[in-house]
Every structure is written in C-alpha cells, then in structure tokens.
Fold this protein.
Amino acid sequence: MNASTISSVLFLAFVAVTLFIVWRAGNTNKKSTDFYDGGASFSGFQNGMAIAGDYMSAASFLGIAGTIALFGYDGFLYSIGFLVAWLVALLLIAEPLRNSGRFTMGDVLSFRMRQIPVRTASAVSTLVVSIFYLMAQMVGAGALVSLLLGITDPTAKNYIIAGVGILMILYVTIGGMKGTTYVQILKAFLLMIGAALLTVMVLWRFNFNISELLGQAATNSGKNDAFLQPGMKFGKDIIDATSGLVDPVKTLWSKLDLISLGLALVLGTAGLPHILIRFYTVPTAKAARKSVNWAIGNIGAFYLMTIALGFGAAAFISRVSLTNGWKVDKVTKCLVDKNNIQVVDPTNTTVCADDSLKQFGALSDELKTHAVGADMSGNVAAPQLAEFLGGGHGSTGGAIMLAVIGAIAFATILAVVAGLVLASSSSFAHDLYASVIKKGNASPEKEVRVAKLAAIVIGLVSIVLAIGAQGLNVAFLVAIAFAIAASGNLPAVLYSLFWKRFNTRGAVFAIYGGLGSALLLLIFSQNVSGALDSLIPLTEGGAHFDYFPLRNPGIVSIPLGFFFGWLGTVTSTEQNTAKYAELEVRSMTGAAIGAAAKH
Amino acid sequence: MGSTENEKVWAETQASPEFQALKKRFRNYAFPVAALSVAWYFLYVMMTGFARDFMNTKVAGNITVAFIFGLLQFVTTFAIAWAYDNHSTKHLDDASDKIARQVEKELGK
C-alpha cells in the first residue's frame, strides 16, 4: 500500500466518523435556533478546543511550518502575531460580546442602531471576509491534494475542491453549530496529536537540544546564520540592482510592510466573524473567558511546535525538495544547468528565451526560484518531514506517517471551512433575511431554513470561486481576510461596546470605510500588479498600477477604519442613550442573557 | 411591564455606584493591559525590523536574542491570559452576577 491509498482510507474514515457525529448532533438540536449557537450549551473547555479547531487552518499548519522551513526565523513572526492577537479578543471582546449578542456579529453592532443599515453592513463584511478566507482554504485543499496524492490532473483537483465544498455544506446543514463544533473539537485533538508526534520525533534526533536543531537547519538550508535571523522574507534590505548598495527608501517600505503585516495579524483575529460567533456557543461570559484561555493554551502550544516542524523540515529536507514537492528532478536540472534556465511565462508554460535570461539575472533569489516554477509556500514541508521521520520516501513507515499527516491536514481544512460557511450563512439569514428583508417578522424556523439554504448557496459559490482562483496565493487571500477584519469589523465592534456616543452612521462608516480602504490598497499594491508574483504578473511594457508601496494594507487601513467610525459618529446627531444604558449593563453583567433585546 | 419601565431599570442600574465601580474595575484592568500587550508585541516587531544587530546577538549556541524575545511573547501571552482570568474571578464575577440578578428581578416585576 502506498501513501496515497493509506491517506485516502484515513481521510475517508475521518469523513465517515464526522458525518456520523454531525448527524447525531443534528438530531439532538432542540430549538431551531440551535443552528446558530448549538443551544449555547458547550463548556468552556469544549468551546476552547473548538476555537482552536476553527482558528488553526491549513495556512497555520502547513503554511507556517513551510515558511519557517524556507525562510527560517521569519516564519515565527506569523506564529507570534496569530497568538498575541488572542489577548485582544480575551480582554476586550469575548465576554461583552457573549453578554450582549445572540447569534451574529450584527447583533452587537446593531444593538442601539438603526437595524437595516447596520445589519446590512455587518452581513456584507461577514460575507466578504468569510468568502476570501474560504477561497484560501479551498485553494489550499486543491494544492494539498495534488502534492500529497500526486494528482496533477486539473479535473481531478476540481473534483477534490468540489468534494470539500459538498462536505462542508453537509456538516453545516445537517449539524448546524453543534455538529460543526464537534468536528472542530475532534480536528483540534487530531492536529495537536499529529504535531506533538512530529515534534517529539524531531527533537529526539537532537537529544532535545534546540540549539543543535537550529544549527543543522541553518547549515542544511545553505543560508547559515541568516536562516536564524529575521529578514529573509519580511523587512528585507533591498539592494539596488545597479549600484549594489542598500536602497534606503525601498528598505524602509519593506520594513514598514513587516510592521503592517504584524498589525493586521494582531488586530484581525478579534474581527473575524467565524471566531466571534464561537463566543455565543457557551452559556455565560465566564465560560467565554475560560474558552479563550483554553484556546490560547492550545494555539500557543501548537505554534511552539511549528518551530520544531519548520526547523526540523529545514534540517532534514533539501531546499530544492521543499520548494518542489516530489517533482525534484526536473527543477534540479533547471537550477544546476544555469545556461538553460527556464522562465515561466504568465500562461504558465515554460519557455527559454535570451531576453528572459537577462531579466532573470536581475531577480532576487526568491524570485529566481519563483521563476523556475518552484513553490515558495513551503506547504509540503510538514508532510515531507513526516515522510522523512517515518523512514523516508518509499519506506512503509514513511508512507504511513505521510498518510497520517496528510489526512490531518484535510481534516484541518474541513473543520475551518465548515466554521466559515456557518458564520456567513448565519449572518445572511439572521442579519439580512430576518432583519433587513423581513423587517424582524420572520419565524425562527423560517430563518433557519433560509440559513441552511444560504449555506448551500455559499458553499456552491465558494466551490466555483475556488476552482477559478487556483492560481492565487493562499497567504494573499488570508491576508485580505485579516486586513478587512481588522480595518472594518474591529473598530465597529470596539466602538459599539465601549463608546457611548457611537451611532448608526459611525458603524456604517467604520465597516465600509475600513473594508473599502483595505480592498483599494490591496488592488493598488504589488499583490495585484507590478511584480513577477502579482495576480497580473509584470511583463516588459505591460500595464501595472502598483501605486501603494506596501503589500499589507493594515498600517493605513486599520487607522482609517477607526477614523471613519469616528467621523461618521460625530457628523450625525443620533445618540441612543437609553439603548446604550441597556447595552452597557448587559455587556458588563450578563443580565437577561439569552433573552436578547426585542428590537 | 412596558418598555419605558424596562428602560428605567437599565438606566438606573447603569447610574448605580455598584455598576460604575464594576465598570471602572474592568476598564482600569482590561484597557491598559490590552494596550500594553499590543505595544509589547509591537516593540518585538519593530525590533525584528529595525534592531537587527541586537536581535542577532547569540545568547547560547545558535539561540539568538530574537528567539528569546519571540519565546517571551509566548510566555507573556500565557501569563496575561492567566492573570486576567484570575483578576476576573476574584474582582469582577461576583459583583457582575449580583447586579445581573438584581436587574433580572426588577425586569420581572
């Protein structure tokens, strides 16, 4: 039996077990609104595991390990940002949100506002953030399949994406919040066990001496000390091609980009709708607090283990292999035979041309690797490490380890996409349908039927989008989601909970202003045009519109979101003092929790 | 009981010294700690960007200041999460429960 077969069997077993759990959970749903909050009956520990399962996406597991494996220290910056972000959620958001809302982010935002504009804005933002995040996960699923199972046929890849989409629709429509929560808890356990297994196996080989692990990683990467220092990926010193000196302006932009990324990571988490609605699944604020602490413990332990996974992969697996999966031969030939360098053209067919060779010489190392068609995401690092630790390519142990880690990665993706579909369909039904379209006159049963229908539609739309977006960079899609969440949702939620004067116009301005500025800055950055790895790759004489020098918009768009929220508020005379009294007392004390305000 | 009476309950509770004390205790803890946590994280990010020589100093074997600083971020995150839970259990939970029960009693009248 080879790794693909074992991996498929394990994955199908996971699917069978989770579908059974989801079906059981669906049968125990008592009220129709259990779809949204699972009956608000989970314990702090259960919800903490589910939060961890909802949060640690394939981008965390495969992406961070891969970034460390390729860029060393810089990958660690992601881990730290993603973890510290939870303090914002813990100290400012989790408990007041639990106390004053019921099912969606829009519940809290619209508490003392005019329902229609605020709920519409909240639903739009929830859908936009969730769909970008969903696409990232599903594109990742497609890429993972081709790497793990050796499927390169595009049709087969599309079937896999569609399969993932259909499974998440089933989880959400059958099990609702309760079923999805159980899937996330199970996945969190599997992921922690898998990561712990790999970590112990890596450290074992170094007698648990971390310094030796780092040393071998630095040597094997060929980058030596630079591999253990910040600056290989983020905040790089940019060397001017003609003078050979450091370009101070470009270097400064590059460092500001690093800080901008950090800002989005640390402030984005507390504005992600699928994370916010998890706080509604527990009965009290105290349980919400406990669940965040369980989540912090789990997520922190996991990110610490990514250090061992990433540096372990760097120590044992060759760089060429890390960037090219198992298709090493072709590219090794390409890299070694410098006279026959192949540059990938925008249509993705390899060509060899003299002028492209000249262009190639001026590229940075990273872009050179890009240009020869290598994958700089490092997504295969963790699976390759697993195979190596099991005994290497071709061995039974290697095949088993690879299969186990591959199946866990699939489980990871499934649990996250289910959470995202749930958040967006809840917001569609509860905010848009019930409050905006039906003006609050929809029965809960009808509302939940609409939510299930929305889950099917959103699932199908994201299947189509993900199939079309397969060329997009997964990290880019995740960055969009975080930047929008930090720029639009976070200011709106914080102002709503803590600023007495805040009003309808302020909420609408904060959400659309933050979302709009983040999107615009992304469009006019090198993410979209002007660089070789842009959405529209740079070509000789080709059009480009990269007017904004940073790839991460957060450093500008987050302050703008707060500014627009303030501006909208002070230019409107509306101020609902009576409802703010109710919101403040509810959010601080949990009085009349569950029996949410009638609007 | 009509909505005007309800509004009165919420407004009176909000104005009560017990509630104001609770609010102050929460804000005096959560706001500065959240701000400090984010600032502490930013110090770390800024230093990885602008203080490379210091960050690259080797402390023991291949372990640099940058690693120690990064690990410290984990330690402080765990510590703050634990300390806040402790603070809430000791100083906030009982007071907020008491106000909540009082409000529910008055709303139920």
In short: The mean pLDDT of chain A is 85. The two ends of chain A are 61 Å apart (CA to CA). Chain A has 23 helices and two strands.
